[in-house]
């Protein structure tokens, strides 16, 4: 039995690159989808928020000198491309996924409608939320916190490159240790960048716990959903 009935999984666009410099690495996306499939077969309802950094980084590189709102909209469109790729890979693996976009692109994906999203989750479909919150100046972290609260997820799972939150950067400091769990207040006090400030505040206000774990560690998602000591739990 899963420890959580309904989860919101936040995937970064960069996670889809694998070892590539940009874009979507086929083997990587298939492996991630199979890990998601594993937890759906346990009876866990899964919604996903996907980033767009593998295609377009709103605050760097190509957006230098660009209007911030325009750059953010381009980033949102990049997340739609990733969401379509994710849903199509799920279809090929025998799963049923629905992409819902915060920006209306009716010929490509359906719009985000909360009751419809809840219906899909109850039917056992995976819902992939695209286009962030639909607003510039908000990150996909904030979209994950917002959608997690809206759908009544029991936890927001932030999939990263590291296997949790550490006392210091483990790549720079070999003595850094992983927190098994930490309170929101202590994470603020220690200035640990778990999610961006807006997303973090929203989760704290809604008493929505966050679990930070490595999506590159085989079986980690399943262990998190089973309630094992994997990654770092941030809680009230």
Keywords:
alpha/beta; 18% strand; Carbamate kinase; 236 residues; nine-stranded mixed beta sheet; 35% helix
- Level-2 CATH architecture: 3-Layer(aba) Sandwich
Counting DSSP H or I runs of 4 or more residues, the number of helices is 7
User: Globular, elongated, flat, extended or rod-shaped: what is the shape?
Assistant: globular
Reading the helices and strands in chain order gives: EHEHEEHEHEEHHEHE
Write down the Rg. 17 Å
Number of domains: 1
The main β sheet shows up as: 9 strands, mixed
Low-confidence stretches: none
Indicate the structural class. Answer: alpha/beta
Task: Please write out the topology.
Elements: E1 6-11, H1 26-41, E2 45-50, H2 68-92, E3 97-101, E4 110-111, H3 114-122, E5 126-130, H4 140-150, E6 155-160, E7 181-183, H5 184-189, H6 197-205, E8 210-214, H7 220-225, E9 232-235
Parallel strand pairs: 1-2, 1-6, 2-5, 3-4, 3-5, 6-8, 7-9
Antiparallel strand pairs: 8-9
Task: Characterise this structure.
The chain is an alpha/beta fold and 236 residues long. Helix 1 (26-41) crosses helix 2 and helix 4 (140-150) packs parallel to helix 6 (197-205). Helices cover 35% and strands 18% of the residues. The protein has helices spanning 26-41, 68-92, 114-122, 140-150, 184-189, 197-205, 220-225; strands at 6-11, 45-50, 97-101, 110-111, 126-130, 155-160, 181-183, 210-214, 232-235. It has a single domain (6-235), classed as 3-Layer(aba) Sandwich (Carbamate kinase). Strands 4-3-5-2-1-6-8-9-7 form a nine-stranded mixed β-sheet, sandwiched between helices. The protein is built from seven helices and nine strands; from the N terminus they run E-H-E-H-E-E-H-E-H-E-E-H-H-E-H-E.
